[in-house]
Write a structure and sequence with these properties.
Layout (H helix, E strand, L loop, with lengths): L1 H24 L11 E2 L5 E3 L1 E3 L2 E2 L6 E5 L4 E4 L2 E3 L3 E2 L6 E4 L3 E11 L2 E13 L3 E3 L4 E2 L3 E3 L1 E3 L9 E5 L6 E2 L5 E3 L4 E10 L4 E11 L5 E6 L4 E6 L7 E6 L6 E5 L2 E6 L17 E6 L6 E9 L12 E3 L4 E5 L5 E5 L5 E3 L2 E3 L3 H4 L7 E8 L2 E7 L6 E4 L5 E4 L8 E8 L4 E8 L3 E6 L6 E4 L26 E5 L7 E7 L5 E2 L6 E2 L8 E6 L7 E2 L11 E4 L4
Parallel strand pairs: 2-11, 13-20, 27-31
Antiparallel strand pairs: 1-4, 3-9, 5-8, 5-10, 6-7, 6-9, 10-11, 12-15, 14-18, 16-17, 16-19, 19-20, 21-22, 21-47, 22-23, 24-25, 25-26, 26-27, 28-29, 29-30, 30-32, 33-34, 34-35, 35-36, 37-38, 38-39, 39-40, 41-42, 42-45, 43-44, 45-46
């Protein structure tokens, strides 16, 4: 019985609440009658979608009139230009002009209205430019402008370079020079001509670079692989023989061998080599070590020659015939390091007397070391602790190798032979299948060929080989090497004779790795006589 009574009371309460809410919804508006509406502040441009705000007070019904406007509802555009809603649906004006909007409201039989002008302006043309614009690359620019339905519209672009113009609305162009450009867009919409401008920065082309030394000026130069690039002299100077240079971890390493390159006496026999590194822009030089600041007896035979790097932050380098030395790349003016290991009768069954050291490189966690001389030949393999592994083997062991570089992508070795079979050669990575890359007349050591610097079994010859492995190139990459003509520089390497300045018969040669053409000069490098060369594989 009690449960039925409670249910009865609950029903009465709910009914009462429901009636009260219904009565409130039908109360006649009272208070100060006022009619007003707002629209967005700021400039309104055509075509526009306009949303109004009804600020009227104590009104019971409304009528909106917006002649020449249209109504947008649920993505459907209609020609309806009136509304009895508290707030009309979105109003659309397609053309610029001044439009009148009227709001009429009622309260208890009273009526009041307000009319306001809406000024819809023509949108100013605009330019949309891409980000990170680089010289010589193609980019699309976008023009945005108001178009009258019945009028033709035209676009005229000027990109602030001779001949770089367009009449397309969204042209694709390539800048030929870097720097700031003022882009000018002229639009004629059939009623008037409008001009807008935009300033953009065109960055220099990001590309790898080639660094090379010059025996004549004793400077280091840079040539970007970007299109239309020119040779630039860096701030780095060298002494007489910078036999090897490299770019490693955003620094440039320069190995100076000094005067004594072959059997020497007197002042030429003094230890005068050094290893120096620079920031990539050629500043902040740091001397890692000098052979004149040494532990133990050191002379010209121990000056640094060729070098390479391991994966643990160390630089390794050869000397004339004393073996291999190493020190950290973070070293600063430290004493000349002791020899790490050498190729001797004790570990390889050979004599060091005519086994002059050449190049070196890390391959498959081994250090490969080339030998050059009247009987010193081939490439020899070592562990990094100095223990001898084995000769590389193959027919490459028949060649006296001044320097070499290993293309581990294509499994090839490129090497320069400076005794006997003068020239540049290629072999498979196991030392077999030796073929000539360039061993013609120009590569022979004589008065019309390669420089005579050195002696019969110690020709200086090619000291720098550099690879650019690049899958974007049809050849898969290029090999670079320095060529010094005997017509430009010749004689005793301790005091070579400069015959021509500039060295018009010398320069850097390039060879495509697919063998599609013979080595040829990079024309921009003609006039320089290189020893060390290097490729910076970072696009800058």
């Amino acid at each position: 019985m009690m449960r039925k009574y409670l249910l009865y009371l609950t029903a009465i309460v709910l009914l009462a609440v429901g009636c009260k809410q219904d009565e409130i919804s039908r109360i006649t508006p009272t208070g100060d009658f006022d009619v007003y509406f707002d629209f967005p502040q700021g400039e309104i441009t055509a075509p526009t979608k306009l949303i109004l705000v009804n600020r009227s007070r104590f009104s019971e019904k409304f009528l909106w009139k917006f002649p020449q406007g249209k109504t947008l509802k649920d993505s459907t555009l209609s020609d309806v230009s009136t509304s009895e809603k508290v707030v009309p649906d979105t109003i659309v004006y397609s053309l610029p002009g001044t439009y009148k909007i009227t709001l009429t409201a009622w309260q208890n039989g009273k009526m009041d209205s307000i009319t306001r002008d809406i000024v819809v302006k023509k949108r100013t043309p605009s330019i949309t430019a891409p980000d990170n614009i680089e010289v010589l690359n193609s980019y699309q620019f976008l023009a945005s402008a108001f178009k009258f339905p019945a009028n033709p519209i035209s676009f005229s672009w000027n990109f602030d370079e001779p001949g770089l113009v367009s009449t397309e609305q969204n042209p694709t162009i390539a800048f030929q020079r870097e720097g700031l450009h003022t882009i000018t867009l002229t639009v004629n919409d059939g009623e008037e001509t409008l001009v807008v401008t935009k300033i953009v920065e065109v960055k220099g082309e990001l590309a790898k670079s080639l660094y090379f030394t010059d025996a004549v000026s004793q400077k280091i130069y840079r040539l970007s692989f970007a299109q239309n690039a020119v040779v630039q002299q860096t701030t780095m100077s060298t002494t007489l023989h910078p036999l090897s240079i490299s770019v490693h971890n955003n620094r440039i390493y320069v190995v100076e061998t000094g005067k004594g390159l072959r059997f020497s006496s007197g002042v030429n026999a003094a230890a005068d080599g050094s290893i120096t590194s620079y920031d990539i822009n050629g500043s902040n030089p740091v001397v890692l070590t000098k052979s004149s600041v040494s532990v133990g007896t050191v002379d010209y035979r121990n000056d640094p020659w060729m070098h390479t790097f391991d994966g643990s932050g160390n630089i390794w380098f050869t000397e004339r015939n004393g073996g291999v030395r190493t020190l950290p790349t973070a070293a600063v003016d430290v004493p000349y390091p002791l020899s790490k290991f050498a190729l001797t009768a004790a570990n390889a069954g050979v004599s060091t007397a005519t086994y002059f050291d050449g190049g070196l490189e890390f391959v498959n966690n081994e250090l490969w070391l080339s030998k050059t001389g009247t009987t010193g030949k081939g490439i020899w393999r070592f562990n990094t602790d100095g223990t001898f592994v084995a000769p590389l083997g193959g027919s490459i062991m028949n060649y006296a190798i001044r320097t070499f570089v290993v293309d581990q992508v294509h499994q090839k070795i490129y090497f320069a032979v400076n005794v006997g079979a003068f020239g540049l050669y290629r072999a498979d990575i196991d030392g077999n299948n030796v073929v000539a890359v360039d061993n013609g007349a120009s590569m022979q050591i004589d008065a019309n060929g390669f420089s005579l610097e050195g002696s019969d079994n110690e020709r200086i010859y090619i000291t720098g080989l550099a690879l650019n492995l690049d899958t974007s190139l049809p050849s898969g990459g290029n090999l670079y090497f320095g060529y010094r003509s005997d017509l430009d520089i010749t004689g005793d390497p301790n005091a070579p004779t400069i015959k021509k300045n500039p060295a018009v018969n010398s320069g850097v040669k390039v060879y495509p790795l697919d063998g599609s053409s013979a080595p040829k000069f990079i024309e921009a490098t003609k006039g320089y006589a290189p020893y060390g060369i290097a490729v910076d594989n970072v696009r800058r």
